[in-house]
Structures are given as C-alpha cells and as structure tokens.
Amino acid sequence: MELHGKSRLAPQGSAQVAEFAKLTFPDDEHRLQWWSPVVAKGHTTAMFEELESEWANQSRSLKFVINEEYTLCINKLVEHARQNKSATAEDAYRVLQVLTRLKGERPKL
Fold first, then answer.
1. Beta strand pairing call for 61-66 and 31-36
2. CB-hemisphere CA count at 13 Å for 52?
3. How far apart are CA 41 and CA 64, in angstroms?
4. What is the distance between the alpha carbons of residues 60 and 52, in angstroms, rounded to a whole number?
5. What is the distance of C-alpha 76 from the center of its chain?
6. Is the pLDDT at 65 greater than 70, yes or no?
7. Radius of gyration of the CA atoms of the chain, in A
8. For residues 64 and 101, what is the distance between their CA atoms, to the nearest angstrom?
9. SS3 label, residue 32
C-alpha cells in the first residue's frame, strides 16, 4: 500500500526514526518497535500486521508490541526490576525498582 513513495500504513515518524538510526548507527542492525498497551483489534491490528510484512519484504524490521504482548513484556520488565538492585540512570526502570520494593500495603496498579 504505497502512497507517493511512502506506506500510508506507516506510523507517523517511522521513516524519520529509521533514517536517524541508519545515520547514527550505520554498522548496527536496526529493529524498530512501536509499543502501545491498548490497540483496537480488527482493522488497526490487520494494518499493523500488513506493515510488518511490508517492512520485512524490504529487509527492515518493524514490530508492534501491543495489547497482551505489551502486558507480557511489561511484566517481564517488572520482574527484572524486582530482581535487579543496581542503581540505574533510566528513570522509568528506576521507578519500577522502587515500586517493587515498597514496604507495607502496596498501591493497586
């Protein structure tokens, strides 16, 4: 599904992100991922699958981490944060580390 040389299915900015990665890290393999906790199943997810195939046919990697897969990945990250006590400069990961070590009654997330 091409429109003026660009996929009309592509998430906004994906071409720019791919180009940035190529220019900044020319010797690395680039795997783009778009993460979203909730995506309506049906037309949108079908478009995502088509776009992943389109990119694969061009020897490029694009993955949509959505819905149940998103939740599984976040749960793995939380478990990793629970087991890793090393301080980190990654703010979001550090918040997970703190939340997994709370004493007393824990907030329901």
1. parallel
2. 13
3. 13
4. 9
5. 14
6. yes
7. 18
8. 30
9. strand
